[in-house]
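Input record (one chain):
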Amino acid sequence: MRVVEKLLKEQDFVAFVNIVVGAYPGRLNGTQTTKEQLKNLFMQNQSNDESLHYYGLWENDKLIGGMRLHGFQMNLFSKMLPIGGVGLVAVDLLHKKEKAAKELIQHFFNIFLEKNIHFVALYPFRPDFYKKMGFGYGPKIYQYLVEPSSFPKGPTKKHLKYLTVEDQQQLVDCYNRVVAKNMGCFLKHNRNYLLFLIIQITM
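The corresponding structure, as predicted from the sequence alone:
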């Protein structure tokens, strides 16, 4: 029998990290240091960020998969609307093709329906899989990566500086102004995510 429950114990997160490393081998090198860092990051996220929650799928008391759920706010016709999000869907390699991921996604739907939230979103890591689950294809995502050598040469560098933690609130305010003017943009609760997104937008 399978059950989906929130990850609470440290050993649950250790097992989930092992599943994630196995499910995304190209992104993680699988070293113990990396696993320890991931475990600590996941536990810290769940403890300190109310918009992030980790859930696991157990079969006969063994963790065979998991996911991270997000609580977003999205600009819809100039009104901020709650949106459910899911990421880091991972299934143990020995349990692939057993509909474990489908079960996780169905539980994801149910969790937000119980909260009376009727819009959900995700980054379609496997578009064919998520299309079968009812998700549609969105517009293209453009990512611009600029190398330092691409900037025009100027007479001075006095206007350039490294950004620090003290600059975060200005970045948050800038990002929020963009969200307020653009339908479909999401507010981010975690400032670290904001910093990452803003860097992508501005570079």
